[in-house]
Amino acid sequence: MERVVLRFLLASAVILTAATVISGERVKETSATAELVWSKGKLESDLLSKPEPGNSDYLSAGADVDDHDDLDGGFSSLDGVLRWAIGHSDPAKLKESAEDVQRLSASELQKRQLEIKEFIEKMNMPSDAQLMQIAIDDLNNSSSSLEDRQRALQELLILVEPLDNANDLNKLGGLAIVIQELNHPDPDIRRLSAWVLGKACQNNPVVQKQILELGALTKLIKMVKSTSIEEAIKALYAVSALIQNNLSGQELFYAEAGDTMLQEILSNSSSDIRLHRKAVFLVADLVECQLENLARAESPFFRNRFFLKSVVDLTASTDLDLQEKALVAIKNLLQLKTTEALIFKDFCDLNGSLVRMRQQLLDLMASEDRRDYALDLENLRREVELIFHEKLGKVENRTSLVSGNNFMHSYLTRRN
Predict the structure, then answer these.
(1) CA atoms within 13 A on the CB side of 320
(2) pLDDT tens digits, one per residue of 256-265
(3) DSSP string spanning 132-177?
(4) Model confidence at 361: pLDDT above 80
(5) Which UniProt keyword terms apply here (predicted)?
(6) What does the alpha-carbon distance between residue 368 and residue 251 come to, in Å, rounded to a whole number?
(7) Where are the chain's structural domains?
């Protein structure tokens, strides 16, 4: 009952808080009694919008608040309030409240902000760590309903976004419990669990290491092959976040046949386009990491002709985002020492793909709303083309040199 009341109070507080934040003018109060810093640059649409499935793995909820905005006995900042609760509020109510607040004068708005701060302090709201512990306890409770588990994971998804909170998750026993949820019979629970793990370890070597040591990578790679597309997408997101710039994680990824999993996705034209995007993005990231660690032996996977062709074929997609990611991957692959230019030329038909893509982009430039993006993509295409021809030229020069040497040797032999 206490938790229900707590969540109700938080939801009520956030409607008042968020409505003020999205109302328009942001005020920074520097007096000793206030020290309240309001977000800059967040639009109403940023706060009210819901993330589209597959569009992005970043749940943008809440306003940016400076770290020094401490609230005694509660959240470290209003950011903590917004991050936890904005996703649990009714967008229609937020919009209505925001419209009411917009009618306030600057002095009335300042007064409202101070009232909100005092209200939050009086509520003695729990810290992020306490909220995470509540969610972890719900997951660890075998009698928790499916709805309670979903809500707990959704709360963790928001709470683990700050680096400090992500680092605290394992200390609270949360990582092991979330990893256990990867085996839950409900696909949505598995999806949310993978999403939480990916969010917690993204750009965080400490949490990456913890999750790898708990053995989650093997399970996540298997989940990428799930018949549930949403589960597969979030599992691949988690895999990518887990091994990004992590050499030991990448070695385990290859040992678990992660490269085969990527090739299966890329070579399957019927795969969901979101899987294609994430897979080719991961390829580009893996190759970039290889380029930054030249002393490390290159994976044979990178010079597999069927794999290379599957990446080049993605440039024929009508999805510009996928085309861009494919070009970045090709650009990186061309810079590897072990990839062969002639395979790109003869087997993958990279030159033909680049020419066809150029024509497609020229057609798009006629559209005013897509012209800028098409221009950026054309610049990237030209860069790839230049690197390709340079790599190909070196091979052709070597071939010409060898042919010339052979001719001279044959000529001298005949004369003697």
Answers:
(1) 16
(2) 999 999 999 9
(3) HHHHHHHHH-TT--HHHHHHHHHHHHHHTSSHHHHHHHHHTTHHHH
(4) yes
(5) Signal
(6) 45
(7) 2-126
